[in-house]
Amino acid sequence: GAVVSQHPSWVICKSGTSVKIECRSLDFQATTMFWYRQFPKQSLMLMATSNEGSKATYEQGVEKDKFLINHASLTLSTLTVTSAHPEDSSFYICSTPRTMSGRGLNEQYFGPGTRLTVT
Amino acid sequence: KNQVEQSPQSLIILEGKNCTLQCNYTVSPFSNLRWYKQDTGRGPVSLTIMTFSENTKSNGRYTATLDADTKQSSLHITASQLSDSASYICVVSARSGGYNKLIFGAGTRLAVHP
Hints:
The structure holds two protein chains of two kinds.
Chain A: E1 4-7, E2 10-13, E3 19-25, E4 32-38, E5 45-51, E6 57-58, E7 67-73, E8 76-81, E9 90-100, E10 105-110, E11 114-118
Parallel strand pairs in A: 2-11
Antiparallel strand pairs in A: 1-3, 3-8, 4-5, 4-9, 5-6, 7-8, 9-10, 9-11
Chain B: E1 3-7, E2 10-14, E3 19-26, E4 30-38, E5 45-51, E6 56-59, E7 62-67, E8 72-77, E9 86-96, E10 99-104, E11 108-113
Parallel strand pairs in B: 2-11
Antiparallel strand pairs in B: 1-3, 3-8, 4-5, 4-9, 6-7, 7-8, 9-10, 9-11
């Protein structure tokens, strides 16, 4: 079953408005969540790393004032795209690591993604 | 610079045929290598994960290999099915400070035709 959920799965908004995307870990606590953006036919690009109870760490070139990240609980992280513009239209995906028992490895579970279209 | 390169960029095969996807990486220090399947409009789903000491890992009809000396990996799909049509992403994990940083390949888009 799904380990990470995202809501909404798709959203269409007008230019200048803000959109909030939720990422939830199901049945386990996620102290760290990653937010990615994916343009058509391209791979995932890491935008930021959010840690529960602290400020997110943004990748170079990602505007922290435009992409607000809140990780207020161990099961929920939100990404808010503020004053969205058409160039922000993309597929946004969150992921969280979860330790694989017995191997000392972190499996990375991805959410199903949110398709954002800004008109 | 840490990089992951995949080939081919896209591939079309007939249902029932086998295929092999390639992944070359220059990532240091290497932690592990993962293959993901991403259906259109969906998030990636893990297929295999291999550490430095593992050179092959199977998951049903998917078999991944890893040559840590040449820094190459392959994903072999046996007896392909229409549902195998997807993007296959090679992801290499690099140790960065206290956590692992994921380096993504651009993916191989596989189309399986009847």
